[in-house]
Batch of 4 targets.
Target 1
Amino acid sequence: MQTPVATILTHLEVLGLAKLSNEIRRESLGILKAETRRISRMINSMIKLGRIETGSELVELIPVDLTKIAETAVSQQLAAVQSRGMTINLKIIPPIPLINGNQDYLLQVFINLIDNSIKYSRAGDKIDIVIVLENQYVKCSIKDTGTGIAPEHLIHVAEYFYRAASEQTEGCGLGLTIVKEILKKLHSKLEMESATTGENKGTTIRFHFPAMIDKIK
């Protein structure tokens, strides 16, 4: 596997060639831009993950509305979903009490998980998000009808830099790691199941929080 830095160095050498067609020059410049953006995402993700793990970034837990956070995330990711010819649905089954959490971190959780579903899906696929109150817990599931993740990859996908998708798929392999660490900080955990064949093909991710029953909206 060639690293982004190795790819950049290769194409910088290409651009230094005396005889170079305009087509190859444009292609190399495009690759340089894409790999530079990839490094930028990786650095930003590593900084965020480091802050979460070391506790250097204060995580203030206050009563928050998970449904509003989910609505914001869907709104922010809608253009990306539609550009892939996919659909996204948010189903909220009231009443949904507030939970003790952190709005910024939970927004990051939803955005990362929706982004991950987009990467593993194709035109015509859909993402369904459901938030419901069950047994005094606010439970959330994010299910896509994408290609699914094979069992040998599923057990590793939340590890550092692990990528089950092809090298052509954007990402740095830290999205699910960040989600896992955020949920741990918020006293929850990441649960995943996936299938690559059959009628349940796709990936489902779940997490839940104790409901503040006295704060039902």
Target 2
Amino acid sequence: MGGRRPKPLAIHQLNGNPRHFSKAELNGADNPQPDLIEPEMPKGMPKAARREWRRIVPLLKEINVLSKVDGLALAAYCRAHSLVEQAAKEIETGGLTFRVMYEDEDSGKMVPGEIKANPAVGIYMNAMKVMKSFLIEFGLTPASRSKLKVSKSSEADPMANYLNRKPGTPPIPFAAPEPVDPSEMSADSDEEKDKES
């Protein structure tokens, strides 16, 4: 059956839940929520793919969309990235097009024929499409990123809490400072400086 593929619930949450799923639907037991743990890099990936893996994993962890079950999707993206790099080098070396050479039947000499596209161009374009589809899945294209609402750290700033407290709330109790041992005071204390002046 055709139609748009459903987005993972983590992406719906980062987008601010525009479909208005209930909390039960977003966090229910019927929705598998894998641990947000960095997946293991698959063995045998090309050097360029491994390099891209190391570059993009911290970005995905930062927005909390990378889980331990995303390894295959991430590896496919990184392999596509590797193909893009390879194809780009081929295009840089051989150009976008090349001229086909034929052997002339009468003279036996090679003569120029029609101009054709470098096959690396097609490889480049297809790999770019694959890359883009995975970037969208992970919320890393400009359009998909603009919809993400990354949650702030759960650790509250004590000063912000104090300044934003409700009127009548008792002040935050602070621990008394530890007494200073006089033997630990430096000779360059303020009292010594006053005596010298």
Target 3
Amino acid sequence: MLLIVYDGWAALKPFDVVLVIVGPVVAICTTHIFSNSLVQLVALGQTADDARVARHARFESRFLLLAVPPLAVLLVLHLANVALTDAIRVVIWLEAALAHLLGRTGSSKLSLLRQLHALSVLAGLVISGRVLLHQVILELAEGTC
């Protein structure tokens, strides 16, 4: 999540931004596939054969769809001739809003008590605020703010 405080966005090309968006999602999928292989080995005492790894890779590949919404927003803004740095800011804010909405929806679907629901919303705000605080500190340190 701290990728948003990266200071070199202005120097990136659109394809570079696509790689920044897709890279972590691919890393998460790869990590899940690897961890499942370890679980098979440790918990079940079985080695992960090619068929088992392929089956789990197909299952985990659905998480690659997480990269589609930000890429779609980036593409639409690029086609609308929005500056890349502004498009990145829009994607970041939309992702933060979506994370907040999903957290709020998830906690209400789980029928959490109001106090726990409020606490989960507050935790999301604190984490988002921390990321924004890092960005401000970095900009102040560089004298760009």
Target 4
Amino acid sequence: MIPITISETEALGRVLARYQPQAAVTRAAGLLTDPQLQANTVRIELLVHLAVAYCNGRKRPGAKDLGEWLNGNPGVNFVAAMEDPVEDVFISNVQTPEGNRRVFEGIWPSNDYYVQVVLDTLLASGAPPLCRRLLQSAFALLRLSDVVAERLALHRWHGERSEPAGRVSIGTETRIEDRARVVTFTNGDLAELGVSRDDLSPFILRNIDKQDSPRRKLAIRGLNAVLL
């Protein structure tokens, strides 16, 4: 468990407060779709957490801002030191009754295996009805994951060299604007995919949720897909 409520991260949060939420979250989350940054997943996820929790302004971050937040910032340094070499491919696969779905592995090895076990358990004939109702939300999220991979032309078992604990390079080649669009889904996109907001509600942080307390805000996991 990595603490993210230390004074240094709260200081970074105050900087992020000047930035527009959708712009900051999509640009930060979009970095999680770059195979060359896979080893830096925890650092980027921390930034997404903080952006979700704090952003409430009008500024739109650019590559320079993202680079400053991820490199040498006291609130991120302790996380960067924990980064390890990548232990699995960048994109894996799970099977569903709707077909194969591509999954972003992140830093945990064999994520696809554990997701598959959960899906198979929920699909079992003896699963309680309440558990089986979770499948609709799970399938909806997996559908979005597969679409994100498709938008980036990332195939199953894709992997690239990624360096941990060093400087994260955010330049024009990172295509932050393109990646921000890739993880964004409009109402029209969702309708075309047959996904409803109700299906995704377990994964959505509402504004009312953010009003409870700063500590609770920081407990929310960053989202890889942003709904407009």
